[in-house]
Design brief:
This protein has about 375 residues and is an alpha+beta fold. It has three domains: about 1-65 and about 75-110, GIY-YIG endonuclease; about 120-260, no CATH class; about 270-365, no CATH class. It has 14 helices and 13 strands.
């Protein structure tokens, strides 16, 4: 653990016990991540902040004699501070996440400021595809998942709308008995296929699930165009009931245009460049479905000319492999940041978006912005 700490936080400031006040002015007044150490280099407290010196000084300030405080007085027990200056909030959260994962892995999600990423997964359970919200990275061969989403309710709403649009089964406890289940009321209403009772083959039902996942992912534009054409053709044939039915289908599909689904893709295609701005500098972070690698800082005024090189780097793929635990929390980190209001300090450039879309996104970084708190 100490080796990992030294690699993550290479800079260190030490002082004799109880004499922190004289040493702390040597800490940088810059954004970064810090870790306080007790005797024997025992980790005591860590945080990310926009001003390392001010944050550590405030945490080590001993309470006055007239003050009441539930905070532990660390001024006499802490003897060192390891730290690293970072570039922007994404870099700080990433470094802090790696530090917490190394020092307090069992307490990871309580200590970090970002949240796990939610997905909608289609997993094979006894030969039948089951759609479920999940935070777990799909490890089963052939499993499919859509993301990123920020909350479980976002994933559940997506499940509900896909179930409505593609007449999927709503009760797993019945479907799991196929072909010996009893059709529910939705079958009587014509909104279910009766796969639970063997009225269609399970493989046909699984195809419907895959079609639904494809619609929410890469096939949406083509499917919507086809459905619009069907609606117009039905109206031209004076089949108004059919046209209204398709119109209602399209209205239900509008849920996927909400901002909470703005980045929805098959999870293995969740890739892009997160460009983090800090004052007059910008730094790219290359991301491939949980693998995160930092690029070189550039002047903010030169970000546009860097776009072709950044796309080549992204298309080349990652240089390292990671485990599923790291993949999951780094997905959560990036998902939180691309959905979090950043006051024009972060641009997300998805792999699927063309050059014009990337250019429009980085132009927003040139807008005036207040310093981060």
């Amino acid at each position: 653990m100490l080796t990992a700490i030294r690699e993550l936080l290479p800079d260190q400031l030490r002082w004799p016990g109880g004499q922190a006040a004289d040493a702390l002015p040597d800490l940088p007044a810059k954004p970064g991540v810090w870790l306080l150490l007790g005797e024997g280099d025992v980790p005591v407290l860590a945080a990310s902040s926009q001003n390392i010196r001010a944050s550590v000084t405030g945490r080590l300030a001993a309470p006055g004699p007239a003050q009441r405080s539930k905070r532990t007085d660390l001024s006499r027990t802490v003897v060192a501070c390891r730290y690293s200056v970072t570039h922007g909030r994404l870099a700080s959260d990433w470094l802090y996440g790696k530090l917490v994962h190394a020092v307090w892995p069992e307490d990871f999600w309580r200590r970090v400021s970002f949240a796990p990423m939610w997905m909608l997964a289609a997993s094979n359970v006894g030969g039948t595809l089951r759609l479920q919200p999940t935070m777990s990275w799909p490890s089963e061969p052939g499993a499919r998942a859509l993301g990123p989403m920020i909350t479980r309710s976002d994933a559940q709403d997506l499940l509900d709308v896909l179930t409505d649009l593609f007449d999927l089964c709503r009760y797993w406890q019945i479907l799991s008995k196929a072909p010996h289940g009893t059709p529910c009321a939705y079958y009587e209403m014509g909104r279910s296929t009766g796969a639970c009772a063997g009225l269609i083959p399970i493989e046909q039902y699984n195809g419907m699930v895959r079609e639904a996942m494809g619609f929410a992912g890469r096939d949406r534009k083509a499917v919507l165009a086809a459905r619009n054409a069907e609606m117009k053709a039905a109206a031209a044939r004076l089949e108004f009931e059919q046209a209204v039915k398709i119109k209602d289908w399209l209205a239900r599909a509008e849920l996927l245009n909400e901002p909470r689904y703005a980045h929805l893709v098959e999870i293995e295609r969740f890739a892009g460049v997160a460009v983090s701005r800090l004052r007059s500098r910008a730094r790219p972070f290359f991301f491939w479905a949980g693998v995160l690698e930092a690029g070189e800082e550039v002047k903010l005024s030169r970000t546009q000319e860097q776009l072709p090189a950044w796309r080549m780097r992204l298309e080349a793929g990652p240089t390292a492999q990671i485990d599923d635990v790291t993949r999951a929390w780094q997905c959560g980190l990036v998902a939180t940041h691309i959905f979090r209001p950043q006051r024009r300090t972060l641009a997300w450039l998805p792999l699927q978006v063309g050059a014009a879309g990337w250019l429009e996104s980085v132009r927003l970084l040139d807008s005036p912005v207040e310093p981060e708190p």
